[in-house]
Specification:
The protein is built from 20 helices and no strands. It has 454 residues and is an all-alpha fold. Among the domains are: 1-87, no CATH class; 392-454. Helix 2 (21-34) packs across helix 3.
Length: 454
């Protein structure tokens, strides 16, 4: 990382362009002359000062953005280059399409995450910038720089795959609280090694493993309430999946970003991301995942017809067989789809719909494979809340007791969100059973280390 007065955005995009500072100065002057600004004539020293933090006056930022847009083949604004007053340093989810520069950006994110605890300085990308960023990342391909040494060999990439598999299982069982820092530290090491170089013979394996680890780092950050940080790790995961030749892997990561938008109450943004994902998805299992998630978003919007349509599409794909299912999307199966249907039914019931969510939650619980303890706990809490909503207070209290006992062993903001749903579901009841459930759920939600989100 460079000093506080530096401009890492501009430095990274200049590196990505492959142009010398002198050539950039010449092109800026030429672009200025073409637009009628013949007085604009920067030299190499002036360009270097801009990378060190000096802010050029208008119209230079616009000219520089035009020059670098042409050089890198990706639309850039003065804000992308760190040349406007708005925005925070390294506060973007876009990556330079240059292998080492992208890894350097990732290293910057992990350093901020691990050592500076700057939760509140990173801004969540929403709306059009988020959708466009996902679309660009799914379509981009990077260029590597030449390096004289290598950061990976067969043994190290095998070790990376094994440790990522271990962390994935641990997160699914116990939540993110105990493992997030270790996962981010591992990702920082991957960023360092990629900057050292990746041998061509194992390039696809290295970036596939990096995509898996970055996707997991994003997920555990989301599960810990670090939502903007999650976006940055997911963006690198999409980029790495593209480098590994696994476009559908990138699509799956975009569905995680859409899940976050649902969680944060931004269904329109979730639909935008899922539209990008649907256009790129190829594998049946990924198409089913996108359809199931899309149905869930429409349910959150109260559109029962569209929710049923997309849920039905997922049903058809699942019944027809998913074919080859890679490990990175093996979690999506009939149980996961039943869970999505359950949450959709709950959302629609809350907006006047007639669907009963409890049956779908029971289906999800019956179908869940071993090892997915956190999501099973979420299903149990969801079942209890649905039963309260449906007027089955005694059954609900029994289901809630088991769910609360299990939830005490898991650290997850997603579990906390379900606990709050359970509290809401008991609000219309004035009985000893409901009072006890409500008190226990509130106490447990407050006691979770990840309750405070940023």
């Amino acid at each position: 990382m460079t000093g506080r007065t530096s401009n890492p955005h501009l430095s990274l995009w200049i590196t990505a362009s492959g142009l010398s500072l002198g050539e950039i100065a010449r092109r800026v002057a030429s672009e200025g002359s073409r637009r009628g600004h013949r007085q604009i004539a920067p030299d190499t020293t002036r360009i270097r000062r801009w990378t060190e933090g000096e802010r050029p006056r208008p119209p230079v930022p616009v000219l520089l953005a035009a020059v670098l847009t042409e050089a890198v083949g990706q639309p850039l604004t003065p804000g992308d280059l760190g040349l406007t007053s708005a925005g925070t340093v390294l506060d973007t989810i876009q990556l330079p399409l240059l292998t080492e520069a992208a890894a350097r950006t990732l290293a910057g994110w992990t350093q901020m995450d691990l050592f500076m605890d700057r939760r509140e300085t990173l801004m969540l990308a929403v709306g059009t910038p988020l959708i466009l960023a996902a679309e660009r990342m799914l379509g981009g391909t990077a260029r590597p720089l030449n390096r004289g040494h290598r950061g990976f060999d067969l043994d190290s990439v095998t070790a990376l795959e094994e440790v990522t598999a271990f962390f994935t299982r641990a997160d699914a069982a116990k939540g993110s609280g105990l493992y997030r820092s270790a996962i981010v530290a591992q990702l920082a090491e991957v960023a360092r090694r990629i900057q050292d170089g990746v041998p061509a013979g194992i390039r696809a394996r290295v970036f596939a493993a990096a995509a898996d680890l970055a996707a997991l780092a994003g997920w555990v950050s989301h599960d810990s309430g670090r939502f903007a940080t999650a976006q940055r790790y997911w963006s690198y995961g999409i980029y790495a999946a593209g480098e590994a030749g696994q476009r559908d892997r990138g699509v799956e990561i975009v569905t995680r970003m859409s899940h976050q938008m649902i969680y944060l109450g931004r269904p329109d943004d979730a639909l935008g991301l899922l539209g990008v994902a649907a256009a790129k998805a190829r594998r049946p299992v990924v198409n089913a995942l996108v359809a199931s998630q899309t149905g869930r978003v429409y349910a959150a919007l109260g559109n029962e017809r569209q929710a049923d349509r997309y849920m039905g599409t997922a049903d058809e794909i699942l019944s027809g067989g998913l074919g080859d299912v890679p490990d990175w999307v093996a979690y999506f199966d009939a149980a996961e789809h039943a869970g999505a249907r359950a949450v959709s039914a709950r959302d629609l019931a809350g907006q006047g719909g007639r669907q009963r969510a409890s049956g779908h939650f029971r289906d999800a619980l019956r179908l869940r494979a071993s090892g997915f303890d956190r999501v099973r706990i979420m299903d149990r809490i969801g079942l209890a809340a649905a039963l309260f909503d449906e007027g089955e207070a005694e059954q609900a209290a029994h289901a809630a007791q088991q769910a609360l006992d299990d939830a005490a062993c898991v650290d997850s903001t997603r579990v906390v969100a379900r606990l709050n749903t359970l509290v809401d579901a008991t609000s219309s009841y004035r009985s000893a059973l409901a009072d006890e459930v409500r008190a226990q759920a509130k106490d447990l939600a407050r006691s979770r280390p990840t309750t405070i989100a940023a």
